[in-house]
Amino acid sequence: MKPKEKAGRTGLISLRLLIAGAICIGVPLLLLAGSEPPGPSWWYNPSLTTTGKPVVSGSANDYAAINQGQLKNIASAAAAEFDSLGYSGSYDGMVAKWKTPTSKTNDYSAANIGEVKAVAQPFYDKLAELHYTGPPLTWAQWGQKYPWDGFQGTINDYAIANIGQVKNVFSFVVPVFALSISPSVVAVPLNGQASLSVSVSDQFGDSMNISNVAWTVNGGGNIDGQGNQNAMFTSNGKTGAYTVTATSGTMSATASVTVYGPVLSGLSLSEDATAIAPDGWDSFWVSGTDQNGNPMNVSNTSWSVSGGGSLTGYGSSAYFNSNGTLGNYTVTAKVGTMTATAP
Question: What does pTM read for this prediction?
């Protein structure tokens, strides 16, 4: 996936290495200042913070050291963003613990790189579940899960982190997925069938495969395909309007299915060959469509030919045998008041 929102400005270095520290538990969450507007939109959403102010606002020095309270503030806003979109993860428990101070709590003490990675890890674990590949992940297509993957040994986890580094790590855009069924509106003749498929895409139009799809219908027939993205609705012979629902996790989508009584509305006549030898033969078959353009079986077909040979009908098909007389002749199929001709 390639989110369209740009990542935030980074500091001198990006966070690398494996997680090597644990964040202290604290209480008041302090405002992390920064430049606007680069970065994901959730940085500037005041409803995500306990202060009622955006987590990134005003003017700041990205090279300045970040303290524990500022780190907790941006992490708490990130957790609130995930929660607002219906996601949950281990970050929720981490943030909840910060609300209960201990004797070791000091939100004004500097945070080191290992502590920043420890706080960021559960967010990237959830992003991996969501198949996120946007910034600041630069090699996600090669299996990169955390922004610091691939740089082991180049950064000291006990070094003090700066504001720019934290903004870089928390510059992700949380994916928002939605299900859709295609076609979303379908007309099915009595005792007929319709194929349906479900897809999932994020707010940037990037799609992903899903499994464990549950299909249901509120009447009018049955639907097969449990667990799959594709399903088949089969009418049970009752006309009416019905709703098919596909569900995967917390996401769902619906399609409208109308089962109707078909009425023959169109005829077409096909043949094997348009020219035959004087002693040759040709075959013809007639097909019908209903008022919604769906195929419809035809019966009681009357066949005739304008000359040149004999025509024998077998229901919806017929065979023409030439009598050796050269010329152009017309075959006609009639069903009720409707006719079709060839050639």
Answer: 0.61
